[in-house]
Design brief:
Keywords: DNA-binding, Transcription, Transcription regulation. The chain is an alpha/beta fold. It has helices spanning 4-16, 19-26, 30-44, 60-86, 100-105, 107-117, 133-138, 185-190, 205-216, 230-238, 281-293, and strands at 49-52, 55-58, 92-98, 121-127, 144-150, 161-175, 196-199, 222-226, 244-247, 259-274. The protein has two domains: 4-84, Winged helix-like DNA-binding domain superfamily/Winged helix DNA-binding domain (Arc Repressor Mutant, subunit A, Orthogonal Bundle), CATH 1.10.10; 91-300, D-Maltodextrin-Binding Protein, domain 2. A six-stranded mixed sheet has the order 4-3-5-10-6-9. Strands 1-2 form a two-stranded antiparallel ribbon. It is globular, with a radius of gyration of 22 Å. The model has no long low-confidence stretch (mean pLDDT 88).
């Protein structure tokens, strides 16, 4: 009989690539992960891993087992959701992930609604970049999260994770001086090709979006500052330190002297959860609370 916990380790190895990464994400030692995967191989009766020095790759049998593991874990999430629905009332922790601008603009009102209707729940909010959400969901560190993607930085398809659209925002070019005449995004961005740029830190979707948008306009941005907080970005724009791309939620409390040029590109936000968990009453309740908390101009 194959052990579900060991199947989860194999699935994580398929997604994360190294035993060390699996161990770090699940608070195990690398040797413990290796031992459990060796036991899984004995249970399976066929080699699941190919070891070359310190590198490990999945065999075809291992890759096939991962596909079955995804289905098994999906059904377990469905079973958990069904059992939760049979209980009277919602209670216990609900681990929520979010990106900073949504944490400020949407999450507080959603939590007010959630706790008014389900006082037994204990929401626990963590900020993290959307690129890190899938790993956190699969590892059980989060139950639900807000994620975003952009026209020039689409979110990848993540095995074991489902999403539901929540809202769409306009994107703006923020500058301290007027730009060129209005026109296409290519024309607007191209006007600032020689300017210094303020972008998010590398390996974030916001960084990929800004660089991708500039490249689509025919140039590579000359990056001066790397900042993840939009309020700080706009403060630097106001100080004449460069230009930046900022979503609608990031333009709250706009500093004096900052000009915004609306672009046709958008940022899309969705709710993400483990595959099979969409019917869990706590996931459904928080999703409903988020929808109710959205400003009118953002609601789908």
């Amino acid at each position: 009989m194959l052990d579900v916990r060991r199947l989860r380790l194999l699935r994580e190895l398929a997604h994360r690539g190294t035993i060390a990464a699996v161990a770090g994400s699940l608070s195990f030692s690398p040797s413990a992960v290796s031992q459990q995967l060796s036991v899984l191989e004995r249970e399976a009766g066929v080699p699941l891993l190919e070891r070359t020095g310190r590198r490990v790759a999945l065999t075809p049998a291992g890759q096939g087992l991962v596909r079955h593991a995804e289905a098994v874990l999906d059904r377990l999430e469905q079973a958990t959701a069904e059992l939760a629905g049979a209980r009277q009332g919602l209670a216990g922790p609900l681990r929520i992930g979010t990106f900073p601008s949504a944490a400020r603009a949407v999450i507080p009102a959603a939590l007010t609604t959630l706790l008014r209707e389900h006082p037994g729940l204990e929401p626990m909010v963590s900020e993290l970049d959307s690129a890190a959400v899938a790993d956190a969901l699969r590892a059980g560190e989060l139950d639900i999260a807000l994620v975003h993607d952009h026209d020039f930085a689409p979110g990848p398809e993540e095995p074991g994770v489902e999403t539901r659209p929540l809202f769409t925002e306009a994107m703006y070019l923020a500058s301290a001086t007027p730009g060129g005449p209005a026109g296409t995004d290519t024309a607007v961005l191209g006007h600032w090709r020689e300017a210094p740029w303020i972008v998010a830190t590398p390996r974030t979707l916001c960084h990929a979006m800004a660089v991708g948008a500039c490249q689509a306009a025919g140039f590579i941005p000359r990056i001066r500052h790397r900042i993840d907080d939009f309020a700080t970005m706009l403060a630097l724009v106001a100080a004449g330190q460069g230009v930046a791309l900022v979503p609608q939620l990031g333009t709250v409390d706009l500093p004096g002297g900052v000009l915004l040029t609306k672009l046709s590109m958008c940022r899309r936000t969705a709710v993400a959860f483990r595959s099979g968990a969409g019917a869990h009453p706590a996931v459904s309740a928080f999703t409903a609370a988020l929808s109710a908390a959205l400003p009118t101009e953002l609601a789908l």
